[in-house]
Amino acid sequence: MSYLLSLLEKSPIPDGKTAVDALRHSVKLAQRAEELGYHRFWLAEHHGNAQLASAAPEIVAAHVLAKTSLLRVGTGGVMLQHYSPYKVAEVFRQLAALAPGRVDAGVGKAPGGLPLSTRALQRRHAGASDFEPLLAELDGFLRDELATGHPLAGAVATPVVSSAPQRILLGGSPDSAALAAKYGWDFTFAGHFNGDAANLQATLDTYRQASGKTAALALYAFAAASRAEAEAQVGQLRIFKLHPESGQAVNLPSLAAAEQYARQAGIRSYRIEELSPHVITGNGEDVRRQLDALHQRYGIHEFIIDNPVADFARRLTSIELIAGADIAVAA
């Protein structure tokens, strides 16, 4: 296997379980992933979602770091628009001081929740309208190279660490790839939400040409004893893309959530596009064969696997089957 396998964890809360159960499962999944030789374990950020226990990924990352010893751990990602870049830099430097060489500072620009959650998160500040200045400021604090003339020049994000967190931008367009390259960040393409092949190719090409590096690819994948069983467990996974008449489109998990988003945001003119995201399914060999094909076609060096099933036992079995003998022996 000539590429790395990593995991994106949303801490889903299965029916009849609690957030306590979900987070305990996340830790167990990370520990098993480390045994199997997975490269990274990322925690997602979602607000106001009763089905996910992943509102504060930095806290869960700290706990997972304490419960593992080799696995890279980070966020996929912190929603930077809600926070002070200075505070985000401090958080990741603190993590890097606790676990040198193992911390990923993954950030994104999606809201991570409905408009009421966004307003609650940004209640104490105006909320930046442009993502790039936030990223530039965070980059400056993480590297101690805030631009001369910046109003915060001289402020230092502590603790100062010799092993800085890896800086990774998550995105789904050539513009996001170009932004990552501009500031010297690694880039992960969010393929689970942006499955269009032309967009994927254009984004990967943009990043490669601008940075000289290869992007990672996040995608949905689930393995079971057979393809039929895997497809049955995944079910009819859907994404509902809200397209306002003006403004950026937003991905939501259900039609009701998309309509609620429009109401909370005061959007009166919009359309909702129902999408069936591609999920790589099958037994372990099936999934690895499809990953092999993506690796060969696009030159992907790392896959970040997002598991769309809530049941913990099935998710655990899936990562074991996908790892297979090759990666387990390497571990």
From TrEMBL:
Residues 16-297 form the Luciferase-like domain. InterPro entries: Bact_Lucif_Oxidored, CmoO-like, Luciferase-like_dom, Luciferase-like_sf. The keyword Oxidoreductase applies. Coiled coil: none annotated. The lineage of its organism: Bacteria, Pseudomonadati, Pseudomonadota, Betaproteobacteria, Neisseriales. This is MsnO8 family LLM class oxidoreductase. Its EC number is 1.-.-.-. PANTHER family: LUCIFERASE-LIKE MONOOXYGENASE, N-ACETYL-S-ALKYLCYSTEINE MONOOXYGENASE. Transmembrane segments: none annotated. It is an enzyme of class 1 (oxidoreductase).
